[in-house]
Amino acid sequence: MNQTHDELRRGIVAVSRQLDDAGLMPNKSGNVSCRVPGGFLITPSGVPYRQLEPGDLVQLGSDGSAASGGLRPSSEWRMHAAIYAQRPEVSAIVHTHSPRATALSCAGLGIPPFHYMIALAGGAIRCMPYATFGTDELAANAVCGLDGRRAVLLANHGVVAVGASLREAHSVAFEVENLATQYLELRAAGLEPVVLSDEELAKVISKFGDYGRIDRT
Ligand SMILES: [Zn+2]
Fold it and tell me: What is the pLDDT of residue 211?
């Protein structure tokens, strides 16, 4: 990671606003973070994204410890800390309550691999059991559901997307909502999706290669 803290702060604000503008963070829900040496930067609790400024972001140690003063970190900081601890390749996390993926989570449904773009998430997207927001239990569920994946649904709650950069986590979060929309359309039409084989999925994941060089065709 070669970006300075200032660049990362501006990046988090930009990504948060884009997600909010797209309707993926209704009513101040969700949160965005980025790994920095010794910890991570995370969006604060209770600040509308349109008013969010780079200086409002909260820097936490890897154990969640915060400098005194300043704004309170997002209530989901434990989940972000747990993911960074378990996934060294992850440098950014986006958590949304994006409407269609959240609707699926409220039915306890994950997203099967019916479209090749699910390879961005690393394969079928799991839906993990419900746990109260802000708890260690929710954090553990998220880490478990992200095993081998870049996205997970949290039952009756929302979505977590991760990436090696803010841009990647942001793209995965958008794609999860896109896939959820397609899946709901299929179900609403009474159609059964044709699921891609493990072999085909592996081929697509291999073709995608380094996520940063993905060619969206
Ligand atoms: Zn949430």
Answer: 53
**Residue 76 is a catalytic residue:** yes
* Strands 151-154, 127-128: pairing kind: parallel
Q: How far is the CA of 154 from the centre of ligand 1 (A)?
A: 9
Model confidence pLDDT, tens digit, residues 36-72: 999 999 999 989 999 999 999 999 999 988 876 689 9
Q: Residues 119, 204: contact at Cβ < 8 Å?
A: yes
Contacts of 135 (CB under 8 A, 6+ apart): 78
Given the structure tokens 């841009």, which residue do they identify?
167
Reported in sequence order, the residue ranges of 62-134 that DSSP labels E, i.e. its strands, are 92-96, 127-128
Instruction: Give residue 97 CA to ligand 1 midpoint distance, Å.
Output: 6
Cα separation of 153 and 74, whole Å?
Answer: 19
Sign of the CA dihedral 53, 56, 58, 59? positive
